[in-house]
Design brief:
The chain starts with 7 loop residues before the first helix and ends in a 6-residue tail after the last strand. It is built from nine helices and ten strands. 19% of the residues are buried. A hairpin with a 3-residue loop joins strand 2 and strand 3. By secondary structure, the chain is an alpha+beta fold.
Length: 320
């Protein structure tokens, strides 16, 4: 077999071809990682922002748990199940055929949001408010009287939402119950909504409370949260700032003798120029009191033209 001996220019050509092939493969690999931009994802709430919204509504769930349990005089548990961003038509598909749906206006934005409550919760709530034991009942439409009773529950929910969402400056005002055919008119079906789902548990029943907010509300919440986070991030050490402010607070201070008891008979005949015995030895130390609280025992002295106190010992109440 004849072995071919390569010349130097042929060896250089082989190395150049190998180098060119490696560079082209790297470029191909880089191009493979490039993805087209999806404009439908614009304005999408990030996972971190959803966690912040969830923390805000966890407080609402805790407050609603305590207040409704006291109002209904029974065990009542509310838990946040999910916080997600979905189109409004997807939210509409989740509403059961028999359900309580209400429109809630958010001020000062003047925007409408939707609240949906499972009607499985209505019979025990109504039974409790009418003096019963909160027993479960069949799933059916409400009478006019039952609807009025359930409206009071929705008003309490709106009040607790207002308290929880106070940091972002929004208040919730219950408008009225909406029929299924009217709900789709409150928002555009393709509009992105912030959907919050809460699970409500009672001794004899359970159900879901769902809230849907339009995009303008979600954007307002995120903008105000971002501003608040920016202030916190640039705020530095909050504890140190509070200490600096506290050090500039002024308190009333006095130097006085310890408290003594005086008989009423000794006070009845007092006149200017008379001497009142306080039953304290002449060497009794006075007390330095700050905001009425004794801090030190001291002796009265003079510092130039001013009166002063020479601190001797701390009072037992402030000893370390």
């Amino acid at each position: 077999m004849n072995e071919k001996t390569l010349k130097q220019d042929e060896i250089d050509a082989l190395f150049q071809a190998a180098r060119t092939g490696a560079e082209s493969s790297e470029k191909t690999e880089v191009r493979a990682r490039v993805l087209p931009y999806n404009f439908s994802l614009a304005g999408q709430i990030s996972n971190e922002q959803l966690r912040a919204i969830s923390m805000l509504n966890d407080m609402f769930a805790r407050n609603l748990t305590h207040n409704l349990a006291a109002w209904l005089r029974t065990r009542f548990q509310v838990n946040l199940v999910s916080a997600e961003q979905i189109p409004f038509n997807e939210f509409l598909l989740r509403i059961p055929e028999i359900s309580y749906v209400a429109s809630v206006r958010l001020e000062p934005l003047g925007a409408a949001s939707v609240m949906q409550l499972d009607l499985a919760l209505a019979p025990p709530v109504i039974d409790l408010l009418l003096g019963g034991d909160g027993k479960d009942g069949p799933l059916r439409e409400l009478t006019d009287i039952e609807e009025s009773i359930l409206a009071s529950l929705v008003e309490i929910i709106c009040r607790e939402l207002t308290v929880a969402w106070q940091p972002v400056g929004l208040s919730f005002e219950f408008e009225r119950r909406q029929m299924q055919t009217q709900v789709a008119r409150l928002m555009a079906v393709s509009e992105k909504t912030l959907c919050l789902s809460f699970e409500i548990r009672m001794p004899h029943s359970s159900g879901l409370l769902n809230l849907a907010f339009p995009a303008v509300v979600a954007n307002t919440i995120l903008r105000r949260m971002t501003i608040d986070w920016g202030r916190r991030s640039h705020g530095g050490n909050a504890r140190g700032k509070m200490m600096d402010v506290a050090r500039r607070i002024r308190f009333g201070t006095s130097l006085q003798l310890p408290t003594v008891s005086v008989r009423t008979a000794d006070l009845e005949g007092l006149k200017p120029g008379m001497v009142l015995r306080l039953n304290h030895p002449a060497n009794t130390l006075a007390e330095v009191r700050v905001a009425g609280e004794p801090l030190f025992e001291a002796r009265p002295v003079r510092l130039g033209p001013h009166r002063a106190a020479r601190l001797e010992v701390s009072t037992p109440e402030v000893m370390p």
